Amino acid sequence: MRILVLGGTVFLGRAVARQALAAGHDVTCAARGTSGDPVDGATFVTVDREEAGGLGAVEGTFDAVVDVARKPSHVRHMVAELAGRAGHVTFVSSCSAYADAVTPDQTSETAPLLPPADPANEDPAAGAEEYGRCKVTCEELVREGFGEVLVNRAGLIVGPEDPTGRFDYWVARHARGGEILAPGDPDERVQYVDVRDLADWILRCAEEGRTGTYDGMGAPMTRREFHAGLQAGTGGTGTLTWVPQDFLTGHAVVPWSGARSLPLWLPLPEYGGFLTRDVTRSLAAGLQPRPLPETAAATLAAFSDTRHITGLTEEEEVELLREWHAR
Ligand SMILES: NC(=O)c1ccc[n+]([C@@H]2O[C@H](COP(=O)([O-])OP(=O)(O)OC[C@H]3O[C@@H](n4cnc5c(N)ncnc54)[C@H](OP(=O)(O)O)[C@@H]3O)[C@@H](O)[C@H]2O)c1
Questions:
Q1: What stretch of H or E contains 243?
Q2: What segment(s) does the record annotate as region Disordered (predicted)?
């Protein structure tokens, strides 16, 4: 197949391109080339989707197109410029498109969506809700433009080359060992997808011509299972100290990501719907999540000196554990 990856210079786009090449496809990646490099073997076309006509250098027809855009304007331009030239179309959306962050076990078929972005202010970088609303607009534009498409609402994507450093925090933390501050309750759930499994599924959906809307995430697991998988994959020998959320919020620990955060930790019940999606349909449609120890081991093996890791510093963790034991 002739496959166009709109993006393809970072993380998921690179993984899709790499797997498509390995499967013997002819792969073109189109981006500005400022965020990273395309994988070896792909044809790279320099484009800037900020401007109408910005995809002018992308020539010919494609059996499959995969787009990871966040900005509705980029999708508007793409729909106009690839009209009549795209076979199967995949739009990579996000579970951030959903409106209800609280209710556990929602499915892609019934979960309510955020409203589309305000046409006067379509800025996916303006915050989590704006990002989700922009993805809703992008989905609508792709469906209007191409009809039957695949919308893959990705959840937390992890694995080698993840630029966010969230999952990497936990891989690095387990690899280091010692006493590990584990947030929340061991029976709470966490959910993610290995970038290689998501890329593989996106590619197979394109090959099979599958359309529809799916969540791109594996089944939830408990935090206990999550840490056990990390330990197995990294060979770490650390011991977990579970610290409940009241203590964490009372000590200014930040959820999810960023400075002084415990990555992938989200307060409950307000984020009870976020890492607990029912993905039965996705698994039935071909998503094949690999075991967590494999993801953890590959992530660790891909660490480089310049890797970005978000989360607590070692000193912050030690101090929090000291205060927890002294309470
Ligand atoms: N990471 C997660 O946990 C997560 C969770 C849910 C959903 N998602 C979604 O999953 C996808 C991840 O995609 P990704 O890993 O490939 O990363 P990404 O950061 O979304 O990639 C954006 C791509 O678009 C290109 N691009 C940006 N601005 C451009 C412009 N003006 N013109 C042309 N190309 C442009 C970038 O390359 P250049 O900068 O070189 O142009 C890059 O290749 C996204 O759709 C994201 O919203 C991610």
A1: strand 239-243
A2: 106-128
In the reported structure, the alpha carbon of residue 84 is separated from the centroid of ligand 1 by a whole-number distance in angstroms of 24
Q: Is the CB of 50 inside a 6 Å radius of any atom of ligand 1?
A: yes
Atom of ligand 1 lying closest to residue 158 CA: 3
Q: What is the CA radius of gyration of the chain?
A: 20
The string of pLDDT tens digits covering residues 40-82 is 999 999 999 999 999 999 999 999 999 999 999 999 999 999 9
Distances in whole angstroms, Cα of residue 165 to Cα of each of 27, 74, 276: 28, 26, 21
Best mutation site among 4, 6, 9, 217 for ligand 1 pocket (most ligand atoms within 8 Å of CB): 9
Whats the size of the chain, residue-wise? 327
Classify the phi-psi angles of 73: left when phi > 0, otherwise alpha if psi is within -120 to 50, otherwise beta: alpha
DSSP assignment string, 69-108: ---HHHHHHHHHHSTTTEEEEEEEEEGGGBS-SSSSS--T
Arithmetic mean of pLDDT over the chain? 97
Q: Where are the domains of the chain?
A: 2-154, 166-191+220-272+291-326
Q: How confident is the model at residue 89 (pLDDT cuts 50, 70, 90)?
A: very high
Contact 190, 84 (CB under 8 A): no
What percent of the chain has pLDDT above 90?
A: 98
94 close to ligand 1 (CB < 6 Angstrom)? yes
Please check the confidence at residue 305 and state whether its pLDDT lies above 90: no
| Gap between the Cα atoms of 69 and 179, Å rounded | 40
- Angle at which helices 11-22 and 195-208 pack, to 10 degrees? 50
166-191+220-272+291-326 folds as: UDP-galactose 4-epimerase; domain 1 (3.90.25)
